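A brief tutorial aside. Many learners find it easier to grasp structure tokens once they have seen a single protein encoded end to end. The record that follows does exactly this for TIR domain-containing protein. Read the sequence first, then the structure, and try to relate runs of similar tokens to stretches of the chain.
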Amino acid sequence: MALVISKGASSSSFTHQSKNFDVFLSFRGQDTRHGFVSHLYEALCLRGIHTFIDDKLPRGEKISAELLKTIENSTMSIIIFSENYASSTWCLDELDKIVECKKNNQLVRPVFYKVSPSEICNQNGKFGKALAKHEKNIKDNKKVQRWRNALQEAATISGWHYEHSYRFSKKGKKMKEFVC
């Protein structure tokens, strides 16, 4: 599905053409946008895989309904977990929607970019600190608990580990499912 940004429109408006995306990429831009994600996006596109990347969307505190619909209408979501992923409420809202879509048989694959599934699942390290900060700043404890549950569920999905130089782990390429 092609993304069209409306010139002169409000900061949260964008429209879609009728076609859906093959892949939705969820990532923390400051960690991965100008390296790993840009290379992944280019590789997917070169292979004819219609991929959504939110590099031109206006930023705000709340994720737009249109972006949630884009996740829902994608065939697959790839979550690139990086050390600051959980510090973004935007990323966590995307993740919550992705996990919801997984329950409706959407294919979901995580990439563990210099983080381990256990750090995400056990919510320690930077993930634990970010969630504790969200609990202090966000009045809706149910929302933070949904994020915690989504992180735990996503950490157990079979995915890939990023090591160095844009190579994935040679140990079987695809990791086994992790159990929290």
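Self-check: The chain has one domain: 18-162. If you spotted this yourself, you are ready for the next section.
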